[in-house]
Write a structure and sequence with these properties.
Layout lengths: L25 E7 L3 E6 L4 E5 L11 E5 L2 E4 L5 E5 L5 E6 L3 E6 L7 H11 L3 E6 L7 H12 L5 E3 L8 H8 L4 E5 L6 H8 L24 E5 L5 E4 L16 H4 L25 H7 L5 H24 L4
Parallel strand pairs: 8-9, 8-11, 9-10, 11-13
Antiparallel strand pairs: 1-2, 1-4, 1-12, 2-3, 4-5, 6-7, 12-13
Bound molecules: guanosine-5'-triphosphate (GTP) and zinc ion (ZN).
């Protein structure tokens, strides 16, 4: 199994406002192995640099290297997730796009949560509907098109049959650095294999006691795509609690509500629930916002509020 970035990896110069102009010391972290990271320099050379586990460096970080010292340059974006125990993890730095992979067995509500998380982190979300070789996927695809196609790109593919990949590749080749998120078994590894054949990730290996399958990757790695753009492969990134979002801001990120972002509710901090003079609930009443989408919004709002109050009570930084 090869988790190293391919030898053809040529890096863009750090884009994060670095003052560094020396290509022999400027680089990008392309793999994280826990106690050491791989840095690929602007010259194309690469080397491993030892780091403390708590150093905070992640794949996608632009760095300056002097001996064994790493100086991290400012980040354009950070994608963070909160795990079930309340810990906050940085998934990767300087990502541009978040690919939300879904298939027939995906959990409801997942797509909306991921879209909101991406937008809060200033990443462009897109949806990848996998397993389109299965007949039943057609209905799911039609549904997702109806709900999301006006808000973000929706790609229909079969990672297994390698069909539908060209539009997705063209999108990623625009120079986007992305990562895929999705429930267990939707086909994230299969998709990465289809897009970067040199990775050869193990697919569908059932190794945990739940029989749900477990990602066999142990390090985070940045993989360049032959036509441009990069994909981060990171273990265990299947779902995430929302971080960095206020309940009052949810509606402006919620898919399908964006176009109503200008509507003025009576109260500036309106959560669009039962407040008087709420413009969103009026749009629901008149049918301009579908009732089922409003129901999903309310459910997500409840999650954000619960998260916020739990974070407050435990003293987590939100
Ligand atoms: N029919 C069909 N099956 C697929 C497709 N893509 C993946 N699969 C199958 O779905 C199962 C799960 O695929 P993986 O790629 O391991 O899924 P994953 O999302 O990486 O799963 P985790 O590692 O558990 O998060 C495997 O048995 C694959 O062969 C597809 O396009 N069509
Ligand atoms: Zn309102």
């Amino acid at each position: 199994m090869n988790h190293g970035a391919s030898s053809s990896h040529r890096l863009k110069s750090p884009q994060s406002g670095s003052a560094c102009t020396d290509p022999t010391c400027c680089g990008l972290i392309t793999a994280h192995h826990g106690v050491e990271v791989e840095v690929v320099f602007t010259t194309g050379k690469r080397r491993m640099v030892r780091v403390k586990r708590s150093s905070g460096h992640v794949v996608g970080d632009d760095v300056e290297v002097a001996g064994e010292m790493l100086r991290r340059l400012p980040r354009r974006t950070e994608l963070r997730r909160r795990d079930g125990g309340g810990g906050i993890h940085l998934v990767a730095a300087n990502l541009d796009v978040l690919g939300i992979v879904v298939a027939l067995n995906s959990s409801p509500g997942f797509i909306d949560r991921a879209i909101v998380a991406a937008r809060v982190a200033q990443l462009q979300p897109f949806v990848v509907v996998n397993k389109c070789d299965l007949d039943d996927t057609a209905a799911l695809l039609a549904d997702l098109h109806r709900i999301y196609a006006d808000s973000l790109p929706v790609f229909a593919i079969s990672a297994m049959d390698r069909t539908g990949l060209a539009p997705l590749q063209a999108f990623l080749n625009q120079g986007h650095r992305g990562v895929f998120v999705g429930s267990s078994g939707v086909g994230k590894s299969s998709l990465l294999n289809a897009l970067c054949p040199e990775i050869n990730l193990k697919v569908g290996k059932v190794s945990d006691h739940n029989g749900l399958g477990r990602h066999t990757t142990t390090v985070s790695t940045l993989h360049p795509l032959s036509g441009g753009g990069e994909l981060v492969d990171t273990p265990g990134f299947r779902d995430f609690g929302l971080v960095d979002i206020l309940a009052e801001e949810l509606a402006i990120h919620f898919p399908g509500f964006e176009e109503h972002g200008e509507v003025s509710c009576r109260f500036r901090n309106c959560r669009h629930r039962t407040e008087p003079g709420c413009a969103i609930t009026k749009l629901v009443e008149s049918g301009q916002i579908p009732a089922d989408r409003y129901a999903v919004y309310l459910k997500l709002l409840g999650e954000v509020e619960a998260d916020q109050s739990e974070a407050r009570s435990k003293g987590w930084k939100n």
